[in-house]
Amino acid sequence: MSTFSATANSSSTIGYAQYGSSSWSTGSSNGACQGAYKGTTAAKSRVGVMVFNNAGTTLKGKLIQQISLSITCSGAGSGSSSKVLTFHKANYQSLNTGIRGSAQVGDTLGTLTGKFYSNTVTHT
User: Fold this and answer.
1) How many CB atoms lie within 10 A of CB 17?
2) Residues 86, 13: Cα–Cα separation, whole Å
3) Pairing mode of beta strands 14-18, 25-26
4) Where are the beta strands (DSSP E) in the chain?
């Protein structure tokens, strides 16, 4: 099994921007950063990008049967309610900071719902 990771303080593997903005924060200790509160418009939500170095060439031509994500979250927001993480295909194969957050987002891959608050959660 291959393992790929994105490091929170790496300016080449992780960053975020508001959906309608081309002002990116990269290499932040805040990682991909919290998105939007329920009911927030798409224009005010945040797009977080994680780049998994060398994943493309390593996985090319392979049949992927399972993906496990280990997600470590800080205590931002409310710890009393479930949060939803939505995953999308990227329109670029690298962290492209010259575009709006909305331009980075491709088709929806799926969502995870859980208690993401001051913990590490693994989803398969």
Assistant:
1) 23
2) 18
3) antiparallel
4) 14-18, 25-26, 46-50, 69-73, 83-90, 105-114, 119-123
Among candidate residues 52, 51, 49, 53, the one with its CA nearest the CA of residue 24: 49
The DSSP annotation for 9-38 comes to: T-TTTEEEEETT----EES-TTTT-----T
Q: Return the SS3 of 49.
A: strand
Q: Check: pTM over 0.70? Answer yes or no.
A: no
Measured CA distances, 107 to 27, 37, 88, 90, 110 (Å): 25, 21, 5, 8, 9
83: Cβ contacts below 8 Å, ≥ 6 apart: 77, 113, 114, 115, 116, 117
Beta-sheet pairing, 46-50 with 69-73: unpaired
Residues 6+ apart with CB under 8 A from 37: 77
Give per-residue pLDDT as tens, 13-33: 777 777 778 888 777 655 555
